[in-house]
Amino acid sequence: MPTSPDVETIEAFCTHHPLAVPVLRRLGLVAAGPACSLETACDERGIDISMVRSTVTDVEDQVTAAWRLRPVPELLDHILCTYHRPFAHEHADVEASLAAAIADSPAHPWAELERTLAELRTDLELHMTMEEHVLFPWLRDPASSATAPIRAMELEHADTIHLLLSLPIPRSPDPAIAALASRMCEFERWLCEHLHFESNELVPRALHIPPSRG
C-alpha cells in the first residue's frame, strides 16, 4: 500500500539523517523497506519511535561535535582526507571480503549484492569528483550562487541512501559471510558519516543555515 505524501518514510528519514541507516539496520527496521513509513515499521516491531529519533541525534552529535566550531575550510579538508581519498581502498576492501565469501559459499545468491556495490562505487566516484571540481571550490570562496551544485549533491546523496537501504547484507553463521556482513556494516556506517558531514554540517554552515534537529 502506498504511503500518504505527508507520511515520513524510512527512506525520507534516512535521506535527511544519513546516520539513521546503520541505526535502523541494527534495529531491524531497514527490512521493512524504504517506502514503509518509519512510524509503521517501529509499531510493527514494538520499537519506540522517539527512541529511534533520539538515538540518531546522539549518533550525529558524537560524529560531528568536535567539528562544530571549526572553520569551513578545515571541515572540507577533513571530508577530503577522511572520506574522499580513502574511498577506493575502502570499497576494494569490501570487494575482497565479498570475493572471499563467494569463494566460501558459491551457492549463495550474490548477484544483487555485487550489482549494488558496483553501482555504489560508480555513482560515488563520479559524485566525489564533481564535488571536488565544482561544489567544494565554491564553498571555500563563495562568490556566487551555488544552488545548482548543492541541489545536485542533495539528489545524489538521496540516490546513495536508496542504494544503501537496498543493500542485501547477508546473515549467516558461516565465518566468511559473517566477516563480509561485519565489513559491510562498517563500510555503510563510514559512508553515512560522509553524507551526514556534507549534508548536515558542511553545506548548512557554509550557507549560514541553522542546524535542523529531529
Please give a structural write-up.
The protein is mainly alpha-helical and 214 residues long. It is 70% helix and 0% strand. The protein has helices at 10-16, 20-26, 38-44, 49-64, 72-84, 87-104, 111-140, 147-166, 175-206. Helix 8 packs antiparallel against helix 9 (175-206). The radius of gyration is 18 Å and the shape is globular. The model has no long low-confidence stretch (mean pLDDT 91).
Number of strands: 0
Regions with pLDDT < 50 over 5+ consecutive residues?
Answer: none
Please outline the major beta sheet.
none
Could you tell me the mean pLDDT? 91
For the termini, the CA-CA separation is 26 Å
Specify the overall morphology: globular
Number of helices: 9
Q: Radius of gyration in whole Å, from Cα?
A: 18 Å
Residue share in helices? over 70%
Determine the strand fraction and express it as a percent band: under 5%
Could you give the order of the helices and strands?
HHHHHHHHH
Structural class: mainly alpha
Characteristic terms for this protein:
214 residues; mainly alpha; 9 helices
Summarize the structure in short.
The protein is built from 9 helices and no strands. The protein is mainly α and 214 residues long.
